[in-house]
Amino acid sequence: MTDAQTITQPHAASKSMDDIVALSKRRGFIYPASEIYGGINGFWDFGPLGALLKNNVRDAWWRAMVLCPPIGPDGHPLQIVGLDSAIIQNPRTWEASGHVGGFNDPMMDDKETKARYRADHIWVYFPKQPASVRFGIAVEAGSFEEAEQRFDKLYQTAKWQKIVRKAAKVFNFNPDDHYWLGMKRPGNITEEEARNAFGPAGEYPGTWEARCGTELSKEDLAITRSPDADEFGTLTEPRMFNLMFETYIGAIRDEDAKAYLRPETAQGIFLNYKNVLDTTRVKVPFGIAQVGKAFRNEVTPRNFIFRSREFEQMEMEWFCPPDQSQKWYEFWKDQRMKWWRSLGVAPGNLRFREHDQEELAHYSNACVDVEYQYPFTAPGFGELEGIAHRGDFDLTQHMQHSGAKLEYFDQQRNQRYLPHVIEPASGLTRGVLVLLCEAFTPDPSRPSKVFMKFHPAMAPVKAGIFPLVNKDGMPEIGEKLYLELRKKYAVEYDAKQSIGKRYARMDEAGAPYCFTIDGDTLKDNTVTVRHRDTCQQQRINIDRVTAFLTENIDRGD
Amino acid sequence: MTDAQTITQPHAASKSMDDIVALSKRRGFIYPASEIYGGINGFWDFGPLGALLKNNVRDAWWRAMVLCPPIGPDGHPLQIVGLDSAIIQNPRTWEASGHVGGFNDPMMDDKETKARYRADHIWVYFPKQPASVRFGIAVEAGSFEEAEQRFDKLYQTAKWQKIVRKAAKVFNFNPDDHYWLGMKRPGNITEEEARNAFGPAGEYPGTWEARCGTELSKEDLAITRSPDADEFGTLTEPRMFNLMFETYIGAIRDEDAKAYLRPETAQGIFLNYKNVLDTTRVKVPFGIAQVGKAFRNEVTPRNFIFRSREFEQMEMEWFCPPDQSQKWYEFWKDQRMKWWRSLGVAPGNLRFREHDQEELAHYSNACVDVEYQYPFTAPGFGELEGIAHRGDFDLTQHMQHSGAKLEYFDQQRNQRYLPHVIEPASGLTRGVLVLLCEAFTPDPSRPSKVFMKFHPAMAPVKAGIFPLVNKDGMPEIGEKLYLELRKKYAVEYDAKQSIGKRYARMDEAGAPYCFTIDGDTLKDNTVTVRHRDTCQQQRINIDRVTAFLTENIDRGD
């Protein structure tokens, strides 16, 4: 038996993404979409447990935003209303928002393998000196730090030998005759020049210069070809590629009929800003919130459901007077971090990352990401939610493109203005991924070797109800208890297999409690409560089970 | 004050669809999508009240299917699990399902106006005798009954004169020189022939033959041109048009990259049938349920959200042994009707309609629609849900197309078979429309002239909380009550405007109760409860308000 106190949250780096993906499939959290047809890259289906888990995150967000908005700085509850706008909107929406013109990723093709990469995920390392060394090594990585790590690793491994042999062919030298870190000087430079370029043997040179794919010229690419990280052929120059999925409405396929699948839910909110003002009782400052699907034709979907082509967002646009926007930016930043923590995400696995000026989108005055330490980013962090100060960019754009008057008359101030907008925009799909990663807890002492330590309020199944054996009146009592509990909680009744196997299954499902009906139940009306996190068991009266769940499921709220 | 007993549910025909659409917009139930850009045909946005209402229907269905499945014929609860599959799946899915080959609507274009019509919504009336009368009158209508009504009306109105004048030009006769119902015999027939064709003057002839657009030949269309119902030019022959929206995945737009937006959620379930069997504990018979968006590139979206291009479905596939399928078909038929009634839809406004053999889809052994009497179909009915006996069509198709083994080994029977499927498939969007139509209750005695009589459990807002005046300590008490109630219910706090206006707004929102804090509250701790349906008021202690809502909201469940 494992003591809860001895299990500390394992570091993200110690959790294997492969194991998490495998468990997600095995227990029915997430399946690859269209699996029987060989799948479809970038699309995933949520299985029985995954759908329940996702609904829990969705409902918690909707509750925190729409049903029970936070108490504001003045001590009164904020005004936020819900919305559910269409995925397909008038295409002029996306001209106004800048997505038609600007929602592009620069991409590079590999001429040999036909693979396509996001240019900002390609890093090419050139020897700093001399310029005449016509050689570059490409690695693919989501960030510069990751690229450095990959390059560093590459440099120290046998793979390097492979690169050397490739380079040898291109630069026409004998790969066995080398003394600078497995690299002989190319023929057209002196030994001294090459030593400067590659450093002394066995030592990481520090004399390489990394350049991002987006910055590469035709000339750069000419010298990058072939001697690569064993992954790349000849890369083309970066070309822009719009990330919106296109379709046509009606039978005629011309420019007039072209429409887009929304790449974000936010614009549906801006489109309805005036409708909401006209048809509800909200006054600035107020918010409009919605949860829904969005689509991005990602060049390289990856990291499980982290970067998929179809995903769900939870976005809220907070409209406020321009001179209060900074205050609200700070308010929402604080709120959103608290909220993620309330779902059971360990504070140490979350952090803020303020975007610097260069990184900010054209529409944004300030932006901070809530980042999570995913197993595939550890020890680094990756995006979970962005809280952006969008100023009046969106309303200005839609006002200009539509001709609609979107200014707000503030009666209290006797002033007309375009509200500024603070946007906490999070991924529902990513939220599910975070909860899966966070909950995944290896424990060699259990039959399942792992259990999913979900916050009880987020757990897709709150309890398993098991008759110890499927006879002797136990199933009847179990089913009665199940019928009682399911009125309030998502619970499972299971009468088959050994009790150990049933506990193991519930450990992997992350059900915080199991209630077992056994011989004693028939005598004294008690059941065994088995605690997921500790594997400890206690007995309580069967009449107390509902109250037990109520007391324990909502703890920490 | 109106007495509840005197208000009977008005007949659908007495409710104006225009009024329902106007209220939906005015109170923030449903807005036209992209309204500031002039809209987009066939797409709608759910506003603050609409989103709440839709969520209530969605959650009630999910609860009835996944969280608390019905008790089966054997007295034990059924096994149904949830799913949430991607909108975009491997395109081979839709080849297997028959949607690529067969999900087509025959369409006709108007060569002059460029408008496009569903051929099965075009009805052309030809004089029965003689065949040589080269003349036809086209009307557009969703059903034959509707077409007859339109033709009949047309026949009796001044519009007829217009048609005659048009026909006169084409058939070269003098429009003023006519004696058969405003129609002179065309020159190439005798007076007797024409009399037979058109009947005696002033009398509905009954000698017209209606032919559906789908049955029209080139020859038929040649004689239909121009002399129409003032709406049509020259119609082309019917041509097939696939209703699936297409898009391309990745940057290359070729046949390999083509994908579709799902036209139904059902196929995502069939794709995961094996995954669910392999990763959960269900055994046949069991169900898989999901709620989600679907898209159909409808030629003529219409009737508000009844036939839109983007909509939501709630579908459950029930997998059962072939020899039990008829029993389960009857079971689900019964369950689904009960469920719609439980949402407060009057039994008289719902009916079953069994599809006859000719109408059945190729995959279906039997199908029954749950129909509702919409204002635009009254006195007729229109589809709300279909309960289809799909046999093993889908699993067979996917087994053949994917090569995956989808047969089920039934341990109890020691038998291997492909389960048969019963599919209760309902529209979530249509469910919302039904609740809006059903709730819409004109009442001239109220300031709002109308109130929305939602079942309390479905009402988007359960209660309004109003301080009578926005001072004297009343707002503080009101806000405290609001903060207490919102933990459990969707409630609104509103302190502005006259109390009459606030009640009127809540009548249109369909909030079953309003709680008003007034001078007496300060003295004796009571509030006024105002009942939506009766406008009657009572006083209860403020501490009893939560209990009052609990007792009343769930009544009838």
What does this structure look like?
Two copies of one chain form a homodimer. By secondary structure, the first copy, chain A, is of the alpha+beta class. Chain A folds into three domains: 7-100 and 254-438, Bira Bifunctional Protein, Domain 2 (BirA Bifunctional Protein, domain 2, 2-Layer Sandwich); 104-241, no CATH class; 461-553, Rossmann fold. Chain A is 30% helix and 23% strand. Chain A is built from 17 helices and 26 strands. A seven-stranded mixed β-sheet of chain A has the order 3-12-13-19-16-15-14. A five-stranded mixed β-sheet of chain A has the order 23-22-24-25-26, with helices on both faces. Chain A has a three-stranded antiparallel β-sheet with strand order 5-4-9. In chain A, strand 4 (104-109) and strand 5 (116-118) form a beta hairpin. In chain A, helix 2 (48-67) crosses helix 13 (428-439). At the A-B interface, strand 2, helix 2, strand 10, helix 10 and strand 12 of A face strand 2, helix 2, strand 10, helix 10 and strand 12 of B.
Q: What structural class should be given to the helix and strand makeup of chain A?
A: alpha+beta
Strand order of the largest sheet of chain A: 3-12-13-19-16-15-14
Span between termini of chain A? 28 Å
CATH class of the largest domain in chain A: Alpha Beta
The fold-level CATH name of the largest domain in chain A is BirA Bifunctional Protein, domain 2
State the shape of chain A.
globular
Mean model confidence by pLDDT of chain A: 86
Quaternary state of the chains: homodimer
Helix share of residues of chain A? 25-40%
Largest sheet of chain A: 7 strands, mixed
Number of helices of chain A: 17
How many runs of DSSP E, i.e. beta strands of chain A? Answer: 26
* Rg value of chain A: 28 Å
Which spans of chain A have pLDDT < 50 for at least 5 consecutive residues? 1-8, 129-133, 175-189, 199-206, 225-229
CATH architecture of the largest domain in chain A: 2-Layer Sandwich
